[in-house]
Amino acid sequence: MSLSDYIKFQRALKGGLTPWEIAEASGVPARDVHLMEVKHRRMGEDDATLVQLASYFGVPLQDLTARREAYRKRLTYFLEDCRREPVAMDLQLESGEVVSGSVVWYSREAIALQSGEQEADVVVVQRPWIADWRCNGTPDWEVSASAATSKSAG
Amino acid sequence: MSMLRNLREKKGLTVSQLAAKSSISSRVILEYEEGQHTISLNHAKLLAKALWVGIEDLMPPAGSTPAYTPPAPTPGPRPTPPPSASPAPRPQPTPGPGMAQPPRTTTDSGTHPRYEAPRTVRPSSSDGQDGRNTPAGGRVPKPVRPAPPPPGPITEGQLEELQRLAVKLEITTEQLEERVGKKLVELNRPEAKDWIKRARAMVEEIAPSREAPYGQWPESREDQEAAYLKQQQEAGSYFVFKLFNGEQVSGVIADFTPYTITIKLHGSNDEMVLRKLAIAYYRRTDAPADGSVLTPEIAPVQAAAEAIEAVEAAGEAVAPKAAKPRAKAKKSPADGVESDRAGEPVTPEMDNMDEDRGV
Fold first, then answer.
1. pLDDT at position B305, please?
2. Does A98 touch chain B (CB under 8 A)?
3. Which of A77, B275, B285, B353 has fewest C-beta within 10 Å?
């Protein structure tokens, strides 16, 4: 998931915190939290900010920096490709669960996959819960694979 | 015949055509032509423009009654009259039918002053003729505009673009040149521009671009989720919601907002408001006919209640709408999770409209 979605995910885990509460507690300006969460562009992703947020959420810094490569539009491009082809895809959720199906529609906040043969067999996944994605039948997950490649290249 | 009618007929226009061209009503034009009224300055300008003549052309020839008398010239340097011309001032024409009254001033019999339009003084040439187009008369002839330069040759960028497009069209440069009818380097800029446009259209036809312009993504155009929820609400579809803590609740969609979904719990009249933030996913399914639940061990209301308890313990990700019997949460998923809201007293649900607030 993108950094934006990850912040939402963390907010949910923390019981539905607002960006203001995060800002107040973490020291990151509310505007930056808001921009990171809402904007399509990759804003406010500097290391200093992420260190503050990682410390606040109690997660390793790597959990946040890795999100830079999983930016929102990357998933959007992938979804659009899958919708046009059309090919089925797998979504790996943060819980480890995998949801499969072909893309019916997608919006800023959710993705609908047709998981069964019937048209009504639709599962709507909220974006903040998507950890990774891939084409159905492909062994590698998109984000994990690219992260591993860049790590080995580095 | 008045000068106005004379000019109009000379131009082959009917009254209505002149009216259309000058934006003056046909009736007024007819009145001018019949001499019932004098032509006002504004109308004279419009008519002169429509007839492609000068305002002074609306004046009748010397000795006859003019259709329009321009206002007196403003004081200024007046060229010396030619020696052959009479030193006597030019006699003012007598007002008559179809002729405007001479401009009046405040001193003119105490009537209201009349607006005098600024007028340029046209100096006469030494031969007594009108000074138009005579450099000696002080008027500089309009310089002839030079012909536009011929279009330049094809630019390097255009050439590169055409070659790139040829590759995309899977043809060689020679084949493209054959199609163009000459060598690419012999094209001029407008021709090259035109061919680039055509080639791009061909490329687009063969392989539509994957790029979507900014702001044109389906996700930004419309809220697909809202449309889907509306459709399912109307259909009375039954859904199972998987919450962030792993719990499941099920029911029919009663209402929804951009940030919440209200469901009517299966087997009861209770409603529950789920914050989307707390939902991992939801799936349409068939409603259990016997009122049994999705998770065999827990009854739906009990499962919902537990989910509520669990979420409330974590800070109100799910807010119940109606009071309902609740089982005590045995274990909260927020246990062990550091939260500055955990354990706080129940407070009204903070809405999640932060996106609309524009921090």
1. 46
2. no
3. B353
The enclosing H or E element of A35 equals: helix A30-38
Cβ neighbours of B339 in A, within 8 Å? 14-15, 17
The pair of three-digit structure tokens given for residue B304, joined into one six-digit string: 């919902």
Nearest Cα to Cα of residue B125 among B180, B157, B84: B84
ipTM: 0.84
What's residue B328's pLDDT? 40
Q: What is the pTM of this model?
A: 0.46
- C-alpha angle with apex B148: B146 to B149, nearest 5 degrees? 115
Tell me which amino acid residue B213 is.
P
E strands, chain B, in order: 238-243, 248-256, 260-265, 271-275, 279-285, 318-320
For the stretch B257-271, pLDDT in tens is: 888 899 988 777 788
- Edge to edge, the sheet with strand A110-114 lists A130-135, A88-93, A98-106, A110-114, A122-126, B279-285, B238-243, B248-256, B260-265, B271-275, B318-320
What single-letter amino acid sits at B346?
A: V
- Shortest distance, CA A130 to any CA of chain B (angstroms): 9
Of B267, B264, B274, the closest CA to residue B232 belongs to: B264
Cβ of A124 within 8 Å of Cβ of B311? The answer is no
Q: For residues B254 and B271, is the Cβ–Cβ distance under 8 A?
A: yes
On whether any CB of chain A is under 8 Å from the CB of B263, the answer is no
